[in-house]
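Section 3.1: Structural characterization of target chains.
Under the original work plan, the team committed to producing a structural model for every single-chain target entering the pipeline before any wet-lab resources were allocated. The record below documents one such target. The sequence was received from the expression subgroup and is listed exactly as submitted; it comprises 188 residues.
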Amino acid sequence: MSTGMNQGWHAIGAEEIRRSWGWFLALGIILVLLGLLALSSTVVATLASMIFFGWLLIVGGVLSVIHAFVRRRWGGFFLELFAGILYAVVGLMVVGNPAAGALAMTLLIAVFLMIGGIFRIITALTARFHHWIWVLLNGVISLILGLFIWGQMPEAALWVIGLFIGIDMIFYGWSLIMLAMMVRNIPA
């Protein structure tokens, strides 16, 4: 390997990864399998993620309210109290109706993809920087995905989040598998 490569491997802790490459491989395989499970049950994965997200909001809200009262003499008491109450209430709403939470979240994802896609398209066409065509392609794909999700509403709310979680888990797991396979052969 070249000196630059050696420095790059050293910077990411290749020796530690090499010593425990089996754990990286196992985690990668588990994530790929969980991602495939999520893809096979996108509705269940979506609803489970919404319930988990709702509970995170509830716990965060309760802790914020407690902290507000423990430190009630500081200037941000009411801000922290109301923020904590808002977290808890929204969390209860999401846990109580995860499908509605998924609908709101999916609408936000669709809008994010459409606006981000339009922004990238405009930037690529007006700036014409090096490799602008890839940014243009990314913008077109993001816009199409956003429009597709928007056009599939409200049914899309039941499967989009689970699909995205599954895809993300598969790619992250695969990247860990490839990393493990690459570093296991690096000499000490």
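Residues 20-180 form one domain.
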